[in-house]
Amino acid sequence: MARVRISSPLLVFLICTVLAIAVSHAARVQKHGEGEETRRKLLNNGLGHSPQMGWNSYNHFPCKLNDKLIRETADAMVSSGLSALGYEYINLDDCWAELNRDSKGNLVPKASFFPYGIKALADYVHSKGLKIGIYGDAGTQTCAKTMPGSLGFEEQDANTFASWGIDYLKYDNCHNKGVNPQERYSKMGKALLKTGRPIFYSLCEWGQDNPATWAPSIGNSWRTTGDIKDTWDSMTGRADQNNKWASYAGPGGWNDPDMLEVGNGGMSKEEYRSHFSIWALAKAPLILGCDLRSIDNDTFEILGNKEVIAVNQDTLGVQGKKVKKNGDLEVWAGPLSGKRVAVILWNRGDSKATIAAQWSDIGLKSSAAVDARDLWEHTTTHTVKHKIEATLESHACKMYILTPQ
Ligand code: GLA
């Protein structure tokens, strides 16, 4: 047998290299471990195992919220049947507080909007079997400039929210004085944990400092985009911006391309159906933004589609993404529990077109035969092989779950 001779300088070099690799690996494990530790604490609060579902006042009622509206919205969430489908949070956005803190530095509910205070409102929302969310800002003032931000008041405000029975905080990014976002957002995250009350933490940093890369250890969701508007261009733009962060989402923390505009009137029924389908597949928060008190049948048919909601809430928790693009014709897909695959065929162009997803595009074996469930038609086609294909009107989509036989 040939013997390999190693000179002593070479031996020293090899030992040093091995040691350096081991030390850097240990440092990485420790760093990752700390993040995981904070994340497990959030998970132990039972929050964010699947994307949050609920309603927020901002898209339909910017700065026009009040006690009556919130109570009526909670009533409508239950009476419409939406709460039974999983929508649980009723969230107040900007403008709920007075411009100034009280003499002890506490936030004060705006008396003309909330004459009975927030605690009484929270009790009412809870009595309907729902949860209540509130809005704050990681700066000196909120975006509408009508109330104070929480920068420097994190513990005090977190304690106030907990004492009122708040279940969810959306934390905005205006007037932040240039203070590092990780510092500002983690301060409030720690303050919320310290209250001992499970409070879902929704970071609204607009994706400016790539929060997907640092927010998973701090909160349950993080905005990846600026504000959505009720238009096709705004909605599709947000879907694309959010898509690139797909690998960072998972149980406990989700990418947030902003709230839903379905039902607000600025898009067609097909466009809203696409909006809801893509948000569901991308494991985005399903936060409704329309007036629930006057929801029409078309809107209910979209927001109340149990099969689409089930894709969003699937236990595997993997964000589906764009897997194929041919001009304006796109295929979006992602894995689901039970070896199933969710697929969207989406015509973003101006004219009718045929779109196909080959099995190789969406992670299925070429030999697979699947049951294809059409989630909008509520029909199943058996033993589909090689590809799934559809002809779609402008801005329309098809959404399927494929189950290998
Ligand atoms: C920012 C947020 C919005 C909304 C408004 C309220 O623009 O991104 O979602 O909360 O502030 O003023």
TrEMBL record:
All copies of domain Alpha galactosidase C-terminal, residue ranges: 327-402
Enzyme category, top tier: hydrolase
One Pfam family of this chain: Melibiase_C
Keyword terms of this UniProt record: Disulfide bond, Glycosidase, Hydrolase, Signal
Catalytic activity field: Hydrolysis of terminal, non-reducing alpha-D-galactose residues in alpha-D-galactosides, including galactose oligosaccharides, galactomannans and galactolipids
Record EC number: 3.2.1.22
Signal peptide: 1-26
UniProt xrefs under InterPro entries: Aldolase_TIM, GH, Glyco_hydro_27, Glyco_hydro_27/36_CS, Glyco_hydro_b, Melibiase_C
PROSITE patterns xref list: ALPHA_GALACTOSIDASE
Similarity comment: Belongs to the glycosyl hydrolase 27 family.
Protein name: Alpha-galactosidase
